[in-house]
Amino acid sequence: MIANRFIRYFVLISMPIALLAQSDRIAGRVDASRAVKVPGNINPQAKPASDEGPVDPAMQLNYVRLMLKPSAVQQADLDRLLRDQQTPGSPNFRKWLTPEQFADRFGVSPADIIKITEWMQSQGFDVVTVGRARRFIAFNATARQIQNALKTEIHHYRVNGQLHFANTSEPSVPEAIQPLVLGFMGLDDFKPKAKAKTQSKTKAHGKAVKPEFDSDGYYEVSPGDLAIIYDLTPLYQAGYTGSGETIAVMGQSNVQLSDIATFRSTFDLSSNLPKRILVPGSADPGLVSGDEGESDLDLEYAGGMAPDAQVLFVYSTDVSVSVTYAIDQALAQVISLSYAGCELDASSTYAQSLQALAQQANAEGITWLAASGDDGAAMCDTKQATHGASVSLEAALPEVTGVGGTMFTGNNSAYWSSQNNGNNSSALSYIPETVWNESTDTDLSASGGGFSTFYTRPAWQVGPGVPAGTARGVPDVSLTAGVNDDPYAAVEEGQLDGYGGTSASTPTFAAIIVLLNEYLGTNGLGNINPNLYWMAQNTSGVFHDITTGWNGVPCVIGTPNCGSTGQFGYNAGPGWDPATGLGSVDANQMFSKWNTGGGTPQIGSVVNGASLTNTGLSPGLIFTVFGSALGPFSGILYQVDQSTNQFYNNLDYISVLVNGFPAPLLYLGPNQINAIAPYELASNVGQSVAVQVTDNGATSNSFNVMVVATAPAIFSLGNGQGAILNQDGSVNGPSNPAAPGSVIQIYATGEGQIYPAGVDGQLANETLANLPRPVAPFSLTIGGVSATYTYAGTAPQTFDGFFQVDAVVPNNLAPGNQPVILNIGGATSAPLNVAVN
């Protein structure tokens, strides 16, 4: 019998966590004199060389947000919920949360919120609002108050000729609240920039004024044209026009509704004007040059492509504030963001805060779409590149759908009528596309794309064209974005002009998702990316695969990524690519083939089952496969063949092959499989081997993993705590520490080859003296001190590959958490804590 209390631990990460009562995490009172720094909050653009000295101490910073983070258990529960909400057959499939439900499950407790706000008010901060989801607190404060409370000065910085402000050092918070703090948003005014690009004035205005083919051979596209090109017309004819649906457009300028009214009249659309929502607590930014035109374009095409939908325009002085408010209030089931920030210019906590907001949005059923940027592979530049390759931070979020740009290659009578229809459209059919790229040395204009430096590749981002690696790829999809070649007709300040860029393709695709919500009869779709990639591999006719062109841009030779050719970027190709993603869409086909379940299994990653990191596979390692359509939603636990005393390597006609050898199975779920690496891998150390999942004859993609001799990793209980038992058999933790000199039991995997030789999935029923030990040399440290042990081998009454160490806690350790590190054959485990009294 498998009796050890940790024997089921390795499947715990796959099973739903019971919803526990929300616990208070701040113990005792908040002592402002005991402050600790919160790292990762300095904007990379605030360089000392650009520092122009302190701001006026009385300068007011408005709507600064203290971003709060969940506990490790809450985050694990949220990760599971997000997977379940996208898994057909799950009881949680498309069961979206309200902000209050999100707060009660994943937010900070009301009691902790009270303690934090009381501290803020004691420092003179004006608390504007507490988020409905209890994941942020917005406040106003002067530079002097921030310096006194957060221990950081606010200085002016001149960057690219513009004067900004930012904190000079990492902010500090009271020690008692630091574990709950993710970081700050709003301590600087480096905001994402509007990306809408205006047609060159040297080009004749196209069919918005004179609808025919113009003298230069270019057209301006209208909502009616896009409906024909991307096959929305049958959906309109079937009555899907966005009625009863809501889309929220994000901005940081006010707009003149008369511009939107003129646009809708010009293109024979009903008088269905947007509703403006100024974020409560934010100053009205007024009409901001550049930003106003951006928002006009967004509103005109979000509403123009979903003509009967309610369009909300959420605006403030900072578009990130607009996004925060729209998500926290769950204003709409689709959010369109045409602002794009360079990843290299973002702080780590800003990136983490955006992801936290995006996960909340997905849990509420919100689909967030973001522009991939208009600077090709060089998101940090606007002219001849000097900063190297980078992507849009917002589009790189795995929870967000990044929208890139294409341009048409068919500008002739085969695709365009010589006269307009009543709605000023003249396109005749789908028009072939290539990568949008109109870049010059003085103006980068190309589809943004590449690979993220912040976000890892999600399990669903797999399929033809997706290269090996661990970075999130951008974009996901693309639509036409030409600026001088077939731009979008739009109205700004009463004038009709041509606009382009991913600022145009994003609201257009966002409107398509609004119509998809109506078509499916759902109250939101959340993160649509898993389904987009599923369709790319399991259906035909949904995507127009863009295989020509590239998003390369000119660069200064000798600067990052710029070689002797003086340009860098990514080529389009079959399948996904970092220039146009999966390509553009046939909306009618996409709607009819939207996934309702099933499909070929797809592997997204293969990781160590204890550390959940890519350590490589060692013989006997408990490993985890993440992906989609891997197994049944209900989940299947291991089963034992009583005739051989081994785990089965085929459950419900599902198996995992590692270099052709079947792996014993521990758990099967729709997005995750836990298995044991076959001991036959010992002959492949130093080589890359293929991992595949088979399900009733359907075979997944082949995922290559390096074989290593050992890959030690301690199982975790969360919050940095190792899976460790005290001498009395109780679970070790801060509230139940181990005594110095006592023996603790540490549970791990990755010991590699064992003696007697390991048998795949073999249960360990021998006496302790006869259980296998690792062949490679073993040692460990506790609190940085070499520790002795009384046993190190297969855990009794478990199975080969499940490793137990009975270690003696050194006598000279200080009380508190002490790191434990295992060393097997020269490879070391990531440190996890044991609590010592």
Describe this structure in words.
The protein has 837 residues and is an alpha+beta fold. It has 15 helices and 54 strands. The strands form 16 sheets. Strands 12, 13, 14, 15, 17, 18, 19 and 22 form an eight-stranded mixed beta sheet that branches. The chain has a five-stranded antiparallel beta sheet with strand order 29-30-37-36-31, with no helix packed on it. α8 (257-266) crosses α9, α9 runs parallel beside α13 and α10 packs parallel to α11. The longest helix has 19 residues, at 502-520. It is globular, with a radius of gyration of 28 Å. 55% of the residues are buried. The model is unreliable at 1-21 and 200-216 (pLDDT under 50).
Give the radius of gyration: 28 Å
Overall form: globular
Low-confidence stretches: 1-21, 200-216
Q: How is the main sheet built?
A: 8 strands, mixed
- Secondary-structure-derived class: alpha+beta
Q: What order do the helices and strands come in, and which of them pair?
A:
Layout: H1 9-12, E1 35-37, E2 51-54, E3 60-68, H2 72-85, H3 99-106, H4 110-122, E4 126-130, E5 136-142, H5 143-150, E6 154-159, E7 162-167, E8 172-174, E9 181-185, E10 193-194, E11 197-198, H6 223-229, H7 233-237, E12 246-251, H8 257-266, E13 275-278, H9 291-305, E14 310-315, H10 319-328, E15 334-337, E16 339-340, H11 348-363, E17 367-371, H12 393-396, E18 400-408, E19 433-435, E20 450-456, E21 471-474, E22 477-480, E23 488-492, E24 495-500, H13 502-520, H14 529-538, E25 543-544, E26 553-554, E27 567-568, E28 584-585, H15 587-592, E29 602-608, E30 622-628, E31 636-637, E32 640-641, E33 646-647, E34 654-658, E35 661-662, E36 665-668, E37 672-676, E38 688-695, E39 698-699, E40 703-706, E41 713-714, E42 716-718, E43 721-722, E44 724-725, E45 743-749, E46 754-755, E47 773-774, E48 778-782, E49 785-786, E50 789-794, E51 803-808, E52 816-824, E53 827-828, E54 832-836
Parallel strand pairs: 12-14, 12-15, 13-14, 15-17, 17-18, 18-22
Antiparallel strand pairs: 1-8, 2-6, 3-5, 3-9, 4-5, 6-7, 10-16, 11-24, 18-19, 20-21, 23-24, 25-28, 26-27, 29-30, 30-37, 31-36, 32-33, 34-35, 34-38, 36-37, 38-39, 38-40, 41-45, 42-43, 44-45, 45-51, 46-47, 48-49, 48-52, 50-51, 52-53, 52-54
Helix pairs in contact: 8-9, 9-13, 10-11
